[in-house]
Amino acid sequence: MNDSGQGAGSAAGSKRKDARRNQQTLLDAAAAIFLTSGVEAPVRDIAAKAGVGMGTIYRHFPTRADLVVAVYRHQVDACAEAGPGLLATSQTPHAALGQWVDLFVDFLVTKHGLAAVLQTDNAGFETLHTYFLDRLLPVCTRLLDAAVASGEIRPDLDAYQLMRGVGNLCIGADSDPRYDARRLVKLLVAGLRQPN
Fold first, then answer.
1. For 95-128, how does the pLDDT look when each residue is reduced to its tens digit (9 = 90+)?
2. For the chain, give me the number of helices (H) and strands (E)?
């Protein structure tokens, strides 16, 4: 009798794990499509990339705004969670910072169009912005602090300033093919180096 109870609990846990994995796959696919085609990309393209039917997307995300918000939060979480791993595995803290900023740029480029989707919901947009700052500022601060402590970069820049600067450099990247925001962001990160 105990075995069947454990089996049922295990099956339910396994189903929840599968559902989370499927939702992650769907959000990753949506993020990739948003990156190349913007947040107004057809749902059928997202479904095809995720390998699911359109009904699956609508079951999880009844409106486009629901999907966009979920992708936004998913990407914020992925960017936040990447920081400690990059710091642990990169050759230097400055290299980790550069790799993390690359992820941050990917996120910022995907996020363009979010304001338009949520323009009628200022409170929702503000909640997301707060979530963004609460999750990403500590990670960026930790990366900057590590690079400062190693003597690689100047100590006179805080995480908010860096994130704001990177964000400003990304404005217009999606609408002007001649503008290479990533190149300018790399120059910004390189410019953080401590003068010799």
1. 999 999 999 998 887 666 665 666 666 677 788 8
2. 9, 0
* Measured CA distances, 85 to 23, 27, 82, 89, 93 (Å): 23, 21, 5, 6, 11
* Closest alpha carbon to 98 in 162, 55, 28, 47: 162
User: For residue 104, how many other CB atoms are within 10 A of its CB?
Assistant: 24
Asked if pLDDT for residue 35 goes beyond 90, the answer is no
> Could you tell me if 100 and 86 are in contact, meaning their C-beta atoms sit under 8 angstroms apart?
yes
Residues 144, 134: Cα–Cα separation, whole Å: 16
Q: What is the rounded distance in angstroms from the CA atom of residue 54 to the CA atom of residue 47?
A: 6
Task: Please check whether residue 36 is in contact with residue 174, taking contact to mean a CB–CB distance below 8 angstroms.
Answer: no
Cα 60 from Cα 42, distance rounded (Å)? 16
For 78, list phi and psi in degrees, rounded to 5: -65, -40
CA–CA gap between residue 104 and residue 101 (Å, rounded): 5
pLDDT of residue 123: 72
Q: Which of 160, 161, 72, 77 is nearest to 124 (CA)?
A: 72
Identity of the residue numbered 104: F
What's the CA gap between 168 and 53, in Å, rounded?
A: 37
With tokens 């979920």, the residue in question is 70
Give the model confidence (pLDDT) of 152-170 as tens digits: 999 999 999 999 999 999 8
